[in-house]
Design goal:
It is built from 11 helices and 10 strands. The chain has 312 residues and is of the alpha/beta class. The two termini are 37 Å apart.
């Protein structure tokens, strides 16, 4: 049985999303710790330059972005489902809220907060500079001050969606069982509590239902985690063959033929150009093959939502 390898670090809230999926599904997985800021010399041979966290690996197949990783895990391990109320489309569509305006409000608040790193987080000295550059397409960190109140107002309006869902006393957002909707929504309080505690207190202290809901989510755990050296993950990729190419979905409007050299880029933040040969698409994903001197041929998979694909 090939191992499920998550490249992540403990403080990464997007990685926490996938750790919670492992928890809901009670999966055993291998944890490879990556640096929280660039450079990431043991990750980029696998991804071709994609630097965001987390990245998921099975053999020589590399999956970028939580939306794609969650979809894959749900397909391979359907029970218990991360869509316990039977609304997979709605829960996935929430990603455009959670990964968009909701997350930007929280990160802007953190970047402009008076108490960043107030907790005991183990982050490198250049972390703030790294993030400033990474988020520059969404906001200018140097001029956040006068706009912070506006971001706080935005955050509170987003948080109120969670309060409304929990108002009838249900334990999780869609009912009795936790799922992907909870995981989307927990990103911001999880992040602010750790990265900007004074801001978190302002935003959540008067809403006890949110703290109790976060406690219930934390109690799910992470499944069974065991650590792996980064070099071992590279060796595994080198020794494995990627999944066979699927070809272009016949209904795909992409207009690029299989075998074409392409560049895949995140369309929102953390600019990067990942180049390779287009070998497959589905209605919601894109796969390229890349050659790397350390790991040989790897398949790198991206979701379509939030990414661009251009021939080069
Ligand atoms: N849309 C991506 C976003 C991932 C993301 O922004 N992750 C943050 C960490 S939680 C990140 O990459 N930070 C910079 C880094 O880790 O290098 C996903 O859903 O996976």
């Amino acid at each position: 049985m090939p191992e499920l390898i998550l490249h992540h670090y403990d403080e990464a809230p997007f990685a926490e999303k996938i750790r919670l999926v492992f928890g809901i599904k009670n999966l055993s997985w291998r944890s490879v710790i990556v640096p929280s800021a660039m450079p990431k010399p043991n990750l980029t041979p696998l991804t071709g330059g994609y630097r965001r966290t987390p990245v998921f690996q099975i053999g020589a197949d590399i999956y970028c972005d939580t939306q794609l990783i969650a979809t894959l895990l749900e397909r391979q391990y359907p029970e218990p489902s991360i869509f316990p109320d039977g609304n997979p489309g709605l829960a996935m569509a929430l990603g455009s809220w959670a990964n968009g305006p909701y997350v930007v409000a929280s990160v802007a608040i953190y970047m402009g907060a008076d108490d960043p790193f107030a907790g005991s987080l183990d982050l490198p000295a250049h972390f703030h500079e790294d993030r400033k550059k990474m988020w520059q397409t969404q906001f200018d960190t140097d001029t956040l001050g006068p706009r912070l109140a506006g971001y706080r107002a935005q955050l509170d309006a987003h948080t109120d969606f969670i309060r409304q869902q929990l108002a009838d006393g249900r334990p999780f957002l869609t009912g009795e069982r936790p799922g992907w909707a909870d995981i989307h929504a927990m990103w911001d309080p999880w992040f602010l509590i750790r990265f900007a505690p004074t801001e978190a207190e302002r935003a959540y202290k008067h809403l006890p239902s949110i703290g109790l809901w976060l406690d219930r989510l934390a109690a799910i755990g992470q499944g069974t985690r065991s650590e792996m050296e980064p070099s071992r993950a590279l060796d595994i990729a080198e020794a494995a063959e990627p999944l066979p190419a699927t070809g272009i979905d016949p209904r795909d409007p992409i207009g690029i033929e299989a075998g074409t050299k392409v560049c895949v880029s995140p369309a929102d933040y953390a600019e990067a150009q990942i180049t390779g040969t287009l070998v497959g698409t589905t209605v919601s994903s894109v796969t390229i093959y890349r050659e790397d001197p350390r790991v040989g041929t790897v398949a790198v998979h991206f979701p379509k939502i939030g990414y661009t694909v251009e021939p080069i």
